[in-house]
């Protein structure tokens, strides 16, 4: 993607994580709010800023953005002999990125604490010929990142779909313990609601990128910003399909919860099932 050039000295790599973050914020001229609690705890955002010369010409363009993805880490963990205790394993993937483009042709993409799997994919793409990166255009890194974020969401939703299917199969085999499994289903539904929330936020973040990309000037006529916009629109459409899938999974869980509760409801009215 380019190099730091003279923006940050190599000695900063020996500093603590907090010092590195402070150095990045200072050199990228990022606003303080990005390192404060509202942004640290936000499920996503997109920020953009620019610096101009005295003659009004654009000197540099900086962005900072974040995605949050909830991943299942496996099936529900049961505790032998105690059906009232269970734990659905999950992890939060916090993906934050900063970009800095300068009119001199330098383009920098910073990735904060992304998982090893995503790192490997991004490195593989960068080493290949089909990364689609253009140093002459500030928003080229954003389409690159969006592609890999979309892949992570795809995997997350399909993994939660697998968890839903496990519960559906258990119910069909009539091996459910209504009190335990009902709460297990509620827990899975809660995770799916989070998944849907993160998808809506991710769509909004990429749409904000698209709005900025359209207005951003092109300095190399061989680079067409409509291509960047089309790529971002495509990624947004994929996220929309994952959102619809996540919503469908929520509905499937509600259906299972209703079926588990039905025998209890019938018994309460004095009828034997």
Mind explaining what this structure looks like?
The chain has 273 residues and is of the alpha+beta class. It has one domain (10-268): Methane Monooxygenase Hydroxylase, Chain G, domain 1, CATH 1.20.58.340. 52% of the residues lie in helices and 21% in strands. The chain contains 6 helices and 4 strands. The chain has a 4-stranded antiparallel sheet with strand order 1-2-3-4. Helix 4 (140-172) packs parallel to helix 6. It is elongated and about 70 Å long.
Topology summary:
Elements: H1 17-28, H2 37-40, E1 44-52, E2 58-79, E3 82-102, E4 107-112, H3 116-127, H4 140-172, H5 178-215, H6 225-268
Helix pairs in contact: 4-5, 4-6, 5-6
Count of beta strands = 4
Radius of gyration: 23 Å
Classification by helices and strands: alpha+beta
Shape: elongated
| CATH topology heading | Methane Monooxygenase Hydroxylase, Chain G, domain 1
CATH architecture: Up-down Bundle
Q: Output the number of helix runs.
A: 6
> What share of the residues lie within helices?
40-55%
The termini sit apart by: 66 Å
* CATH class designation: Mainly Alpha
How are helices and strands ordered from N to C? HHEEEEHHHH
Overall mean pLDDT: 79
CATH superfamily: Magnesium transport protein CorA, transmembrane region
Percentage of β-strand residues: 15-25%
Low-confidence stretches: 1-12, 78-86, 264-270
Brief write-up:
The protein is an alpha+beta fold. It is built from 6 helices and 4 strands.
Summary keywords:
273 residues, alpha+beta, Methane Monooxygenase Hydroxylase, Chain G, domain 1, four-stranded antiparallel beta sheet, 6 helices
